[in-house]
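Please predict the structure of the following assembly.
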Amino acid sequence: MVQVKALVTTHRRVAGDHYFMRLEAPTVAQRAKPGQFIHVQCGDSTLLRRPFSLMDVDAKTGAIDFIYKVVGLGTNSLTEIPAGEKVDLLGPLGHPFEIPAELKRAYLVGGGVGIPPLYLLAKTLLKGHDSELTSGAASSSRSHGSRVQVEAFLGARTKGWVICASDFRRLGIPVHVATDDGTLGTRGSVVDLLKSVVDRQDAVLYICGPTPMMAAAAALTRRKKLAAQVSLEERMGCAMGCCMGCVVEIAAEPAAAHTRFQRVCTEGPVFPAEAILWK
Amino acid sequence: MEIKLGKLHLQNPVMVASGTFGYGEEYHRLFDVNRLGAIVTKSISLKPRPGNPAPRIYETASGMINSIGLQNVGLEAFLKKKMPFLRKLKGPKVIVNLAGESVAEYVTLARRLEECERVDGLELNISCPNCERGGIQFGVDPKLTADLVGRVRRVTRRTLIAKLSPNVTDITVIARAAAEAGADALSLINTLLAIAVDAKRWLPRIATVTGGLSGPAIKPVALRMVWQVHRVLPKIPLIGIGGIMTAEDAVEFMLCGATAVEVGTANYVNPKAPLEIIEGLKAILSTRGLTSPRSLVGKLKTPQKLKGVPQMVSG
């Protein structure tokens, strides 16, 4: 993890209130794993940094990409930083998606601005993840193993907000879409799309989106006894594990009192879906 | 840059505030924490504490509200897992912040830490606004403050600091009680009790409704309280806390009477803020031809006799 002033090389609106930002941050690009995030100083109008999960990294060019949605003062202030300026960031941070050694099939389930981090995961899975991403034993079996079957399930409020669908298609993976208003793909929740595929017991679901959507997906995978990982979002202070501000309540009986609440910045943002106490 | 705080000699007057810097190790990934004047640990309680429900933090104008609820690993895990790193540090003094539910708990904590060689000082948290029984019950009552500080004083030879709450009518009363009971120094202020509201959903932004306000928003209040206490108790060293982001902020606190400062919320904004404050302070002193930060303490130029302003000085 490093603190750097990173040059903004691309910054544009992609859909609705969603913006794409590319930064030059070679150290972060070399070290980041799918599911990790950066903590960005968004300008002078806010005090605290804002966390953004990485959508893509390029170790060769040093580029890191993320997409954010304008939801408040911080993200609004970020929109005003043009290409050519620098932003102060910390990263890469957090516990990444876990890729089991014997993974055969991965269903990536994204909602709204939760979709982009799944793109870096998809790319990594298709590449045949390297040793950095897994434990030693896992990486050796992976190098002999077959390719992982990856499918994407993307949901959003309306057609224009289904971000990254074309990026996933360019990777050559099947993309299933649901919109709340039915303007693209199936009408309804992306969780409904899963019901037809969740009988595949060899699949691992990777889920990132609004909390109600993740809770519904988690309930489904629990019923079907499928392995699932969720990437959570929470307001953060330090993002370094110190302030204890960004916690989530754990469902499992904790080993010790002080582990009932775990930090999204450190133990997360990726947790096993069954670990979370969904409300 | 060296200063004296009770029995302790700090290499510089810049400390990091409890709860904002973990146990030192976390920030050591980003910079050499050996350069700090002192590290004040996250509050330690006798038993591990789960803390308060989420959401726990919310940003407000020039500040933030938190209600963490003293989530911490507890004394035993602190000694086993967190002390080894702190023990190795060469530069900064190690101050352990203590939070108890009863006088007996504070005394037990202080006794155990008395056996721990690298612990240089104790900061008594008698001001956490987010727990019914996390210290503030002592910090708002001069008699309870005196009793607690006195009882801990009897079991420790370490530099003893009482961290005061601003959530009182007259902070000088509590300050005097702590000083007379044997505190070597006072740190002030802890956070101000506050609320943030979501007007669209008619909900509080913090799960416990109230939380503690910190950051630049509280600096003027903190300066006023440091100044008030220094006027009444000029001999006891004060550690100024409250929205210190820059070296100039630190200078302001020193002019009002602080011997040292603790940097808190700024650590979240810029993890290297304490280092920048140390360097900035050096530069400010040298520009003025001063050799020691002590030359700044209490040097605020005020009229000899203040007329027509509320004094709030306790008898």
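The CA atoms of residues 105 and 149 of chain A lie 5 Å apart. The two ends of chain A are 32 Å apart (CA to CA).
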